[in-house]
Fold:
Amino acid sequence: MEKSDAESELKAIHDRKPTFHNSDQPYILPNDSIEQSRLKKQHNAIVSLLHNRATTAPLHHPSTLIDIGCGTGLVTTLLASQHASASHIYGIDLVPVPASTAALAATDPRLEFIQGDIRSLLASDPRLRPGSVDFAFSRLLLYGMTDWPGYVASLFELVRPGGWAECQEFCDRFFYEATPSGAERKVGVGGEGGGGEGGEREGEKEEAVDVLDWEGWEWLRAYREGSAQKGLDLDCGMKVAGWMKDAGFVDVSAQEYRMPYWKGAAQEMGRPELREVADLLVGDPDGMFYHAFPKTVEGLDMGKEKIEELRRQMMRCLGEERGKFQTYWVVTGRKPE
Structure:
């Protein structure tokens, strides 16, 4: 594609007027067709990042599995295909899944999608009885979840003894490293609870530099302040392990993956699949941040001109730059027998 064509396509994405979820939840991302397409690309990029896996918990012949915040339903249907002996696979989201996914569910009696908020459903839906689930999975709830300790505690109640929970989340900050040291770091979970980071990083070659206080990143500070005002915790990825320990889970394991903002990272790190991750992120090609920003800061009493100024700053910061990355956390825990 010629550069002018790419620029025109990006402009069209940014100029669109996306729709948003019609609910009382603080979810800040669009829900139009372009966002649905982005979610599919995001799914593929994350699967690549995790070495061709969507989930990582060590499951053995699970009977009932649940995908919370299922979105497009890609993970839900994948769980159904991977676990042929399972009797029930539920996908839960605030809005209906796409028609193509719903049609697929119609061909598999084990597969069922439930619309609603998980915390409300746990108190009212007989299919989600305490101690009834072998595996509870969620991915990227950070833009809609307002009570993480309560949510993780509800997972503990939902999972049967010996069952597993897995949460995959961003830490929505930006970092720099002087020299790429690999795309993932294992984290041993120890120390005190309380939702803190906890544990030691094993095999880490260099400490990353957080850019939050840097000049030129005012947009990120506003983005995080607006999110906090809505009750969202954009650092949830690094805190989930602590919340799992507090809830009572054992064998808690956390792994931090670095998501590069430069396309040469794939070659430098010897992991070609990281190109798919960089393609998803560099320049905000689907307008996720661009369209989420005004909705996120709507309570900060900013004028339209200031919002547009920070949007321009944001787009500069989201451009390609060697050594820049965000982090993605995969945390698993088992309910004791």
In short: The chain has one domain: 3-61+140-334. Residues 3-61+140-334 form one domain. The chain has a mean pLDDT of 88. The chain is about 35% helix and 20% strand.
